[in-house]
Amino acid sequence: MLNPRHRPPRSSCGAFSLLEVLVTIAVLGILAIVAVESTTRLREGATATKLDSDVAAINQSIKVYLANGGNLDGVTDPAAVLEKLKTRREASDAAAFAGFRSDMIDQRVVPVLQTVAEAAQRTPRAVWNATAKRFDMAQQGAAGVARFELDAAAGRADHGVESREAGAVALNRGDGWIWNYEDAAPPVLSGPGTIPVTTPTPLVPAAPTPPGRLQAPVFSTPGGTYRYNTFPDTVTITNPSGTGQIMVGRSWTADGVQWEAYTGPVTIEPGSHLLAFVQSPGGEYTDSVASSGTYELEIIELEAPRIEPSASLMDLDSNQTVSIQIVNPNPSDYRSYVEYALSDGNYVRYEGPLSISPSSHAAGFEIAARVVPSMRGFEASEPVTRWLPVKLRPPLIDKKQTGAIFDITLFDRNPANVGTLRYLIQDLRTGTRTAWQDYSAAFAIDGSLYGKGFEVVTYAATTSTRHLDSSESSAQGRSFFGTQVADRAILVLDVSGSMASNGRLTSLKAEAKRLLSAMPQDGKISIISFSSKAKLEFAYQTTTSSKITQAQGIIDSLKASGLTNYSESLNMALGIVKANPDVEQVVFLSDGAPTTGDTSTNGILRIVDSIAALKVAVSPIGYQMTTDAERKLIQRMKERGTPTF
């Protein structure tokens, strides 16, 4: 329990007086002003040091420029000075010049001039001295350069070339000595003369040189942005003062630049920063300002390749291979190569033309290609793509005839879900066509409704953006006892005595007349009848309307009698084929085995082979034959009657 009589010391609980508070506030204000002033001066000092260092480095570049034939006479603008330093020596005299031929300064460097307000203050500025041809530091006077900055856009610009003065000696442009060299003519000696004698003037000792700053070191290649073939792998640093130690800095830490003594050429990589100064050995000189350079590599984006296929599309029907050539348009010294990928696959290196089979890319074909660098200083090109449309196969048509009824089935030979089959029916007599229809199932056609026959026309219509419609395929409803007959054919008809039995000749006449009525206007037909002898009933000629009527009359006049002479009738057909190269087919009909002429199987087959060798089909029909031997001969003739191409 506290003693009520006890009181704490007065000083332990008393408050500040008003005077103490005012004094404290005043002290804090003074400290804040001092801190702000110190920070401002520190910032201004750093800016001035940076500008002083930049001016020293640029002045060294100016010396190198002038020493290598450059000319700054009449140049008064700081920006124009820098532009001169960024130019290159003309190619016409660069080959013979023994010195620097390229730019002398980082091409991104641009001057930032003082504003009017800044020039009115005592702030550091770089002022161009046109007489001494250098930048001088000043604190007041005319507006100057407030700072030097790096501008990437200026680095990408081409600052051009200029003609510079030749050096004291020149490299030899031709063969022989490295230097241009000519023996000097011997001096011409003169006779005796009088040598003047004068009294020498006493030498006055020169005033001692006041202590000064050493000259900044010079880089053999100044900082800048260089192309792949001009980027310096090393930089040699020289000391123009001839005294002191060159110190080099290439790395920075929290403690500042890590300096080391220069012992030889410095290795440079793209993005390297290089600092150097001459360290004074002491005495009358002080350390030089630092020279600096940043070395960037100009990145060249390679040009995209060209994809050149041998065809504009891929045809599944012909399945002819397509050759794909990829052309690299970049110069050979860029050392690049081409990669390609097929249909979203992985990129592989292109080694030569590609042979592409349409059947291997039936679902669609696309190729992508790019150019890839194999050396630094380049960037891969953007990929280019090319797709070739794939032309679909036309449908196959299966036609089966039962009397006058034809059952038609279409078969799609293309990949699933890339197309649909369509068809129409054309009347061969009138030329009229039905509308195109989508095929969904087999359908039947009544041939009796078409006096001259009909034609089914079909194609595969694409439903894919990567495919093209197929060409059309067709089949005609023109047949002779179930055998399809070509537009240009020879009918060889048996009228031997056996054809009079069972209404065979009557059926033959009806079927032949129906066939003739279905022949196209530009078709051709010839009719041969045979029994004991062969007879040319209708010479090979165009099936115009009048000729068809004439041929139908000949068919009506046929009579059955005599034996069966296969060999003579086939030889007559062979003679017509030889005389008319456009014949497509020989249709041969008989109801029995040969009974006269050359009746041997080999003899008859030799004639069939001769016709087939002329690229004409032999289509034999065994009509109401009763024995296996008869049917076997017809089958052998059919097998041998396929044309040989």
Structural summary, described in words:
The chain folds into five domains: 30-157; 213-298, Immunoglobulin-like, CATH 2.60.40; 301-390, Immunoglobulins (Immunoglobulin-like), CATH 2.60.40.10; 396-476, Immunoglobulin-like, CATH 2.60.40; 481-640, Rossmann fold (3-Layer(aba) Sandwich), CATH 3.40.50. It starts with 17 loop residues before the first helix and ends in a 5-residue tail after the last helix. The chain is an alpha+beta fold.
Quick take:
With 645 residues, this protein is α+β, with helices and mostly antiparallel strands. The protein has five domains: 30-157; 213-298, Immunoglobulin-like (Sandwich); 301-390, Sandwich (Immunoglobulin-like); 396-476, Sandwich (Immunoglobulin-like), CATH 2.60.40; 481-640, 3-Layer(aba) Sandwich (Rossmann fold), CATH 3.40.50. Helix 6 (504-517) packs antiparallel against helix 7, helix 8 runs parallel beside helix 9 and helix 9 runs parallel beside helix 10.
